[in-house]
Amino acid sequence: MVEHDFRLVASRTALPAGVVTFHVENHGPSTHEFIVDETFYRADALPLQKNGLQVNEQSARLHTADSLSAIRVGTTRDLTMTLTPGHYVMFCNLEGHYQGGMRFAFDVTS
Fold first, then answer.
1. Burial of 94 per CB tally in 10 Å (0-12, 13-18, 19+)
2. With contact defined as beta carbons under 8 Å apart, do 102 and 9 qualify?
3. How far is residue 103's CA from residue 90's CA, in Å, rounded to a whole number?
4. Mind listing the pLDDT tens digit for each residue in 5-64?
5. Rounded to two decimals, what is the model's pTM?
């Protein structure tokens, strides 16, 4: 997984259920987050806060699986989690980043 303004680049759109490790590289030019939510929404249709610049992480239709915050430019961090079958969206929710295109959908299969 590579993050940079304003894209998330992943190598796969489907994963088997179970333990998965996301290797997140921030190629900059700014700090980013990495949030993984289970939802039925498309990547470009998550509910937004009233400011229209960030995803409403409190929405009952989003279920945060896990996240990393403050991934600085030039750093790499790993996020290991157990995923169950479903539809997921990963995104950066710093102001304007999601709307700028930092989002990616994937499915987890049994």
1. middle
2. no
3. 6
4. 788 888 889 999 999 999 999 998 899 999 999 999 999 999 999 999 999 999 999 999
5. 0.94
Q: How far is CA 11 from CA 1, 24, 61, 95, in A?
A: 7, 12, 26, 25
Reported as a single tens digit per residue, the pLDDT across 84-98 is 999 999 999 999 999
d(C-alpha 6, C-alpha 8), whole Å: 7
Q: Which string of b and e fits 7-21 if b means at least 16 CB within 10 Å?
A: ebeeeeeebeeeebe
Number of neighbouring beta carbons within 10 Å of residue 64: 12
Domains identified in the chain and CATH numbers: 2-109 (2.60.40.420)
Cα torsion 95, 97, 31, 64: sign: positive
